[in-house]
From TrEMBL, chain A:
It holds the Pfam family oligo_HPY. Residues 32-283 form the ABC transporter domain. Transmembrane segments: none annotated. Keywords: ATP-binding, Nucleotide-binding, Transport. It comes from Microlunatus flavus. SMART domains: AAA. This is Oligopeptide transport system ATP-binding protein. The keyword Lyase does not apply. The keyword Cell inner membrane does not apply. GO terms for biological process: peptide transport; transmembrane transport. One of its GO terms (molecular function) is ATP hydrolysis activity.
TrEMBL record, chain B:
It is found in: Cell membrane. Keywords: Cell membrane, Membrane, Transmembrane, Transmembrane helix, Transport. Belongs to the binding-protein-dependent transport system permease family. SUPFAM superfamilies: MetI-like. PANTHER family: D,D-DIPEPTIDE TRANSPORT SYSTEM PERMEASE PROTEIN DDPC-RELATED, OLIGOPEPTIDE TRANSPORT SYSTEM PERMEASE PROTEIN APPC. It is a multi-pass membrane protein. Its main location: membrane. This is Peptide/nickel transport system permease protein. Residues 100-289 form the ABC transmembrane type-1 domain. The keyword Transmembrane helix applies. The chain crosses the membrane at residues 36-60, 106-128, 164-182, 217-244, 268-289.
Length: 307, 299
């Protein structure tokens, strides 16, 4: 387990979770882990600064993070905008090569970009359903391209499998022949989920999958994700700034602030007995309606009420 | 874990398909493949008329475009010559039609090569960045810093007269515009999540470039290409005027204008009509470009 490894980056938090038992029962072995993960982005700096030999500014998006996702578990990653959640999830998805640290898929460390087989293990659902689909490819083309390239089904059955995937996310089969522009945000996010599922992954990384959607649609997409997680036996890293949503679906929670994980633990534990000041601040910032007592439950209730 | 409070559904209903009344216009996405709009129709019609005029020149006119008849020079319109004759007694209308062949071919080819080269380089520079991007963009800056006509004229002069030299010279100067446009579009498109998603799906780089980025960045380059055809024709016209263009006696609009300029006060139509042909061609191409942009839903 990576939880016992020493801290690598400044202010990194070692996660002491040797055996994990959660609200939904015991979960299995490690499927995805990051250890001592550091991702810095180098700014270009000003021309004047470069002339004077000043080093360009470095943005420390992720600055030493250890996290483990276990089989069958939903890990909620929360934090305010710009705290490095998205960068962390993109590193975990193999889209960025980290500055330092290790990403492990099924206990195997990645060397550079994931290979074809490793890509199949971990898939990602993106934040913005309006820019995450190629506007010039129909839903069927998007899905069949992946199926064909990875040779997931015989060529003759590609069409049928596309229909299955579309059906799996609750869209009518004729959606296959339509371009993304004829769909609403919620429907597009369903297509994004179908694309991630096309590779039959074991891990789904959802990077703020509902924050761009109407509140009324958010719940349906979250329920779809939970439903699929149960039926397909997925593990999920769920990134969000919405405490109410994360509380509703996560087994464990990691709270991120300024590129480091400041608190990590079982959902109920973190919500009821937060240790870190930042976590308390985050919990207190959940909007309340009608003077409801507990902040997080009030948020969840509000969302359901709005449904 | 809290149980889901809301059932998975209901899913919002899909927009009903609106099938075209003409089945052959129906395409992917339930929309007409051609999705014609008035701008595109007018532009394409004009272009078709110009192309047909060139192609059907031998049918439309009984005269030979290059045969001289010095006894009938500078005839006014009429008397079998629709637009009169030039100083060598050649039928102006016939030369106008044959010139469409030359100018459209040279204009299109002089845009095709820069388009392909510039788009390819811009795509690679935008996607890979790094030293390749740096070097390429400095080369672009250098070419842009020169007055393009002077550069083209110098190149044609160095390479020797002839249409091949014109293609090469215009290509050497023209690719920079496409490289710049496409590079800029790629820089925007590669940050879109669909490009990330394609990578997350494990698709190889060449496939992401060709199937995901290229179709989404080509529109701007295409719009520029349409106006570039006119610029190329103007370059050929200018070169013809300087005696470096299409070698005589092959008719092209540029040489017709330059030959007619001596008579501009007495036989104004010798220069005005080929000039008008250039303008109408430019208009047709501009309308096609606008129409395509409208059709694609981007403004």
């Amino acid at each position: 387990m990576s939880g016992t490894s020493p801290s690598t980056g400044s202010g990194s938090v070692s996660i002491g979770s040797g055996s994990v038992s959660t609200a939904s029962g015991s979960v299995g072995e490690e499927v995805l882990a990051v250890e001592g993960l550091v991702q810095h982005f180098r700014g270009r700096g000003s021309a004047w600064g470069r002339l004077r030999g000043r080093p360009p500014k470095v943005v420390k998006a992720v600055d030493g993070v250890d996290l483990v996702l276990h089989r069958g578990e939903t890990l909620g990653l929360v934090g305010e905008s710009g705290c490095g959640k998205s960068t962390l999830s993109r590193c975990a998805a193999g889209l960025y090569t980290p500055t330092a640290g290790v990403v492990r898929y099924a206990r195997q460390p990645l060397h550079g970009a994931p290979d074809r087989a490793q890509r199949r293990l971990v898939q990602m659902v993106f934040q913005d359903p309006y820019s995450s689909l190629n506007p010039r490819m129909t839903v069927g083309q998007t899905l069949s391209e992946i199926l064909t390239y990875h040779r997931l089904v015989p060529r003759a059955q590609v069409r049928a499998r596309v229909g299955e995937l579309i059906d799996l996310v609750g869209l009518p089969t004729r959606a296959a022949d339509q371009l993304p522009r004829s769909f609403s945000g919620g429907q597009r996010q369903r297509i994004g989920i179908a694309r991630a599922l096309a590779l039959e992954p074991q891990v789904l990384i959802a990077d703020e999958p509902v924050s761009a959607l109407d509140v009324s649609v958010q719940a349906t997409i979250i329920n779809l994700l939970l439903d699929l997680k149960e039926t397909l036996g997925l593990s999920m890293l769920f990134v969000s700034h919405n405490m109410a949503v994360v509380r509703q679906i996560s087994d464990r929670i990691a709270v991120m602030h300024d590129g480091v994980v400041v608190e990590e633990g079982d959902t109920s534990e973190v919500f009821e007995h937060p240790h870190d000041d930042y976590t308390r601040l985050l919990l207190a910032s959940v909007p309340r309606i009608g003077g409801a007592p507990a902040p997080a439950t009030a948020g969840a209730a509000t969302e359901r009420g709005l449904r | 874990m809290t149980a889901p409070a809301v059932p998975v559904g209901p899913v919002e209903p899909l927009q009903p398909l609106q099938p075209s009344r003409l089945p052959w216009l129906r395409g992917r996405g339930g929309e007409g493949v051609l999705r014609l709009n008035p701008t595109l129709v007018i532009g394409l019609s004009l272009l078709v008329v110009i192309v047909l005029a060139g192609v059907l020149a031998p049918v439309l006119s009984p005269w030979d475009p290059v045969a001289q008849d010095l006894t009938a020079s500078l005839q006014p319109p009429g008397n079998g010559h629709l637009l009169g004759t030039d100083q060598l007694g050649r039928d102006v209308f016939t030369r106008l039609l044959y010139a469409a062949r030359v100018d459209l071919r040279v204009g299109a080819l002089a845009v095709l090569f820069p388009f392909i080269i510039g788009t390819t380089l811009g795509l690679l520079a935008g996607w890979f960045g790094g030293w390749f991007d740096l070097v390429l963009m400095r080369v672009v800056d250098m070419v842009v810093a020169f007055p393009s006509f002077v550069l083209i004229i110098a190149l044609v002069f160095a390479l020797g007269q002839g249409t091949a030299s014109i293609y090469i010279a215009i290509t050497l100067v023209g690719w920079v515009a496409y490289a710049r446009i496409v590079r800029g579009e790629v820089l925007v498109a590669k940050e879109q999540e669909y490009a990330l998603a394609a990578r997350a799906s494990g698709l190889p780089t060449w496939r992401i470039l060709l199937r995901h980025l290229l179709p989404n960045v080509l529109l701007q380059a295409f719009v520029f290409a349409m106006s570039d055809v006119v610029l190329s024709i103007l370059a050929i016209v200018t070169l013809g005027y300087l005696g470096l263009g299409v070698p005589p006696p092959t008719p092209d609009w540029g040489s017709m204008i330059s030959e007619g300029q001596n008579f501009v006060f007495t036989k104004w139509y010798l220069t005005a009509v080929p000039g008008l042909a250039v303008v109408v061609t430019g208009l047709a191409l501009a309308l096609v470009a606008d129409g395509v942009v409208q059709r694609s839903g981007r403004r």
